[in-house]
Amino acid sequence: MTFRLYCYGPKGLVCLLFLFLIAVPSASSQDGVDFFERKIRPVLIQHCYECHSGEAKKTKGGLAVNTRQGLLAGGETGPAIVPGHPEKSLLIKAIRHDDPDLKMPRKEKLPSEVIADFVKWIKMGAPDPRDKVVSPPRKQGEWNLDEGRKFWAFQPPRLVAPPTVKDTTWAYNEVDRFILAKLEARGLRPNRDADPGVLLRRLHYAIIGLPPTVQELNAFTKAWDASGAKRRVILAETVDRLLASPHFGERWGRHWLDVARFAESSGGGRTLIFRDAWRYRDYVINAYNSDKAFDQFILEQLAGDLLNANTPEERYWQLVATAFLLLGPTNFERQDKPLLEMDVIDEMIDTMGKGFLGMTIGCARCHDHKFDPIPTKDYYALAGIFKSTKFIVHSNVSKWMERPLPTSDMNLDLTIRKHETAVAALKKQIATIKAKNPQAGVVTEPLKGTPLDPKTLAGIVIDDSQARKVGAWKHSVFTGRYIGEGYLYDDRAMKSEKTLTFQPEFTEDGTYDVRLAYIPHTNRADKVAVRVFHRNGDDTVYVNQRLMPPIDSRFVSLGRYRFTKGSQWFVMLSTDGANGHVVADAVQFLPEALADKELLKPKGERSEPLGSRLQDLEAQLKAIEKKAPERPIAMAVADADKIIDMHVCIRGIVHNKGEIVPRGFLQVATRASLPRQRGEGLPKNQSGRRELAQWIASTDNPLTARVYVNRVWHHLFGAGLVRTVDNFGATGELPTHPELLDYLAIRFSSPLLSGEGSGVRVQGLAWSTKKLIREIVLSHAFQMASDPNADGLKADAENRLLWRMNRQRLEAEALRDTILMVSGQLDRALMGNTIKKGTIAEREYVFDDVRRSVYTPIFRNRLHELFEVFDFPDPNMVYGKRNVSTVPTQALYMMNSPFIMMQARHAATLTLKDDGKDSERIDLAYRKTVGRPPTPRERELALAYVATPMTQRLAAWERFYQTLFACVDFRYVN
Q1: 758, pLDDT greater than 60
Q2: What kind and span of H or E run contains 96?
Q3: N or C end: fewer C-beta atoms under 10 angstroms in the chain?
Q4: Taking the CA atoms of the chain, what radius of gyration do you get in angstroms?
Q5: How many CB atoms lie within 10 A of CB 419?
Q6: 3 state SS of 511
Q7: Which residues contact 463 (CB under 8 A, 6 or more apart)?
Q8: Residue 356 — pLDDT band, cuts 50, 70, 90?
């Protein structure tokens, strides 16, 4: 079908909308199945099968959840799920515990993030691969690995000679011979060659993700028309120029970021900002621009911290690369820390498996893989490697692992070392004092003094008399040293939990240092829980009230938090778990600027003496740590202090421990004759990540090179030789051209190979992505037109034999970048942190930058609106292949988005600045946006539309550009 742009004015836009309304959206069924296997099936097994499956002695309520049909049919109360409609699904009502008579599980409510997973699953259409009759789970060891290795993906790639073809003039290289042989066998002819302008636009978007300029289009077309037999030379020069562009890394790095589920926030629970995730994004871009060998790319992402480095810069990138393991969606608030760790490990294994191996390894967490020869023991052999890795730092709200980075700035390095020396010296003195006197710092005698008027203190001060009390609290003025009219204490007469809530009225938004005032003594509790409810959630801080408060001997800082106008925020002090008296005098909310100034005051200006030697040292330590030089930090892993083998988690439940499994790799994807290939003999003093990375990056691994070559082919042709690019297992598709896939995999991963007994000899590409892309785009197959023809459609409607080029929709980033380029607003600066300074939450983030879209912040709960509309991948999952939908919201966005209208106005303003006739301006606009001149009819309509009075010309040209942005030709590459 050929699309032309005959749509100007309101009628044209209505026609455009109609095109979208009649289009059918597409979706990836494999993504849904993967989501079910990772997020839904384990929960059903753990919480529901006991009463609602074939395993139950009696199926309660007539409901069986161990089959898709059972969920759809439901039980006595009706269908359990209505695909696409969670609000109509009884299952959701049950797990939310909305109805006291309908609760599942009855004993305890599922965590909120699990409920959210079920809602998401049903919205996806409740994908479920289970047959109507489900056989019992395969027992451990029932997989016959020798039989499993016979599956095509586990067979080593086989090098065969490129086939002989009848039409010897059509093939430009071996890639073409493999494709042409298939076509000739079916009696098909390759399509005609693409027009030069179409070919250049295709190359630009494929390699750098930006359209050619009008000057580049004109020059290429002119040279193409004049060159005749030398066209292949011109094309090769163009490809080499694009591969050398710094924008190459931005385009191809973004492809890998889809696989790496890159995001700059944690997503789960109270989402946290990954402030240093941008370093990993820059690592990926830099790796592609420098054409880092893909095997080295694998090694650095899985085990960069364990590799040797020759320079500080090399060490910098090696550490940054390991963020690959940490970037997944995580609920760091989860209080069951072993479960939290296991969930992160599961996410690492799933990402590594799909990303590098094209295997859904995560399905083997609860049981032997249902479809592929991956026993549960293999899953926990891998889990042991990551369990022996430091990747999380536990606290009430845990956090991802971070490591300092080396710096090439000698002055900064010297400053850092001086600071670290000073901190170490203070810590040593403090430790010495505490070792000699374990009670050092504990106040043994009541502090005496005079009251302090709250009005004399800066910021907002809430006295204990203003606090909201729950339980019996007593008022005291015993010490005389308090704020306001006294202080409150819990006399422990009643053992029930008591609370004090301090609730200020904020008159302006800002960040405040929150401080608690208390009266210390030996009879106080040493772990008083204080919760701070703030703009980004709530944090619990524990205070030892036996120690002298470090700030003016009155206050202890609870941390700095952001608050907004109003009185919805508060601080709550609790007696829960207290092992002594709990005391509260006041809470101070000090603006950040004032708190910073206070740090700079000379010691003599303090309102109270510091007191003991220990307290003085601790105050000095706190002050010097707050003025620490800013050292670059990366999300990065390290080997754990204790290297362990992991136990099998029966049914995936971390607390249900089974047998211990030695650390190792996937047995089915290894050569059985090599013990090290099976993971045997891993170092006892290291995690085994380096050996795992070496196994994945080995030419002996039958999966890795095939999976990556297929990814590259998919991005260039719009469909992989294996169309399920993240799944090479039994539920994935078979390759359409297996010999070509193997040829490219062997060529890609080897410097030089000879075929066994065939006399085939092929020069390898040494894992070079650029060389691989160059070979593919210089093939004749890549240069074909995308026009359909009757013979091809009849014989191969899905174009699996590649008789023509696929027509591809521009991805969200390319759409946005092209719009900014046409409007003259695109900022082509490379790399760097692009999250706005001061950002502490994602919900209200305003996307107003004009950098290339690869630098637009990616938050798990908030994306740029254009990304959401145009199928940007879910950053919670591995996405080697994006969904491509055509839905009404896309047309509506192009018609109503303030961003589109603003860029259309910029483009119109830029156009009207140039001298020339309107016909020339229209021709230029078409070439800039859709890469071709307008047809005579399009020119006629456009001229009539922009022929308006001078006062209305800018508005007319703005609408003209907006319609160009909204047209189908703009959004597709032929």
Answers
A1: no
A2: helix 90-96
A3: N
A4: 32
A5: 16
A6: strand
A7: 454, 483, 484, 485, 585, 586
A8: very high
Q: How would DSSP label each residue in 772-810? A: HHHHHHTSTGGGB-----HHHHHH-TT-TT-SSPPPEEP
- Residue type, position 817, single letter: D
Is the CA virtual torsion 249, 250, 255, 256 positive or negative?
A: positive
pLDDT at position 132, please?
41
7 pLDDT band (50/70/90 cuts)? very low
Query: What pLDDT is attached to residue 856?
Result: 97
pLDDT at residue 494 in the model = 60
**For helices 704-717 and 769-777, what crossing angle results, to 10°?**
50
How many residues appear in the chain? Answer: 974
What pLDDT digit, counting tens, does each position of 251-266 carry? 999 999 999 999 999 9
Look at residues 677, 699, 689 and name the one whose alpha carbon lies nearest to residue 299: 689
Query: 675-707: buried (b, 16+ CB within 10 Å) or exposed (e) per residue?
Result: eebbbeebeeebbbbbbbbbbbbbbebbbbbbb
Per-residue pLDDT at 271: 87
Residue 888 CA, distance from chain mean position = 27
- Cα–Cα distances in angstroms (integers) from residue 824 to residues 204, 821, 849, 878, 928, in the given order: 18, 5, 14, 34, 11
12 vs 48: which has the higher pLDDT: 48
Rounded Cα gap, residues 518 and 523, in angstroms = 13
What pairs with residue 517 in β-bridges? 555, 586
Instruction: Say what the pLDDT of residue 134 is.
Output: 39
State the average pLDDT over residues 222-248. 92
Q: How far apart are CA 967 and CA 13, in angstroms?
A: 9
CB 297 within 8 A of CB 331: no
How many whole angstroms separate alpha carbon 81 and alpha carbon 70?
Answer: 10
Q: pLDDT grade, residue 916 (50/70/90)?
A: confident
Residues 6+ apart with CB under 8 A from 724: 30, 731, 732, 733, 881
Let me know: does 399 contact 390? Beta carbons within 8 Å. Answer: no
Range of lowest pLDDT (174-183, 613-622, 733-742): 613-622
User: CA 943, CA 946: separation in Å to the nearest integer?
Assistant: 5
Encoded tokens for 388: 């022996």
The residues, ordered by sequence, that sit 6+ positions from 892 with a Cβ below 8 Å of its Cβ are 17
Q: How buried is residue 922: exposed, middle or buried, by Cβ count under 10 Å (0-12/13-18/19+)? A: buried
Q: 230: which 2 tokens?
A: 């030398």
Q: Assess contact for 274 and 635: CB atoms under 8 A.
A: yes
CA distance 812 to 890: 11
Structure tokens at 751: 């410097």
Hey, how many other C-beta atoms are within 10 angstroms of the C-beta on 571?
26
Question: What are 821's two structure tokens?
Answer: 């380029």
CA 775, CA 748: separation in Å to the nearest integer?
A: 10
At residue 577, what is the residue type?
G
How far apart CA 921 and CA 254 sit, in angstroms, is: 34
- The model's pTM: 0.78
How far is the C-alpha of 197 from the C-alpha of 210, rounded, in Å?
14
Instruction: Please calculate the CA angle 835-889-935 and round it to the nearest 5 degrees.
Output: 100
Closest C-alpha among 307, 387, 377, 393 to residue 643: 387
CA angle (751 as vertex; 745, 755 as ends), nearest 5: 65
From first CA to last CA, the distance across the chain in angstroms is 11
Helices (H), 353-470: 376-387, 410-436
Three-state DSSP state, 845: coil
Q: What are the pLDDT digits (tens) for 516-534?
A: 999 998 888 988 999 998 8
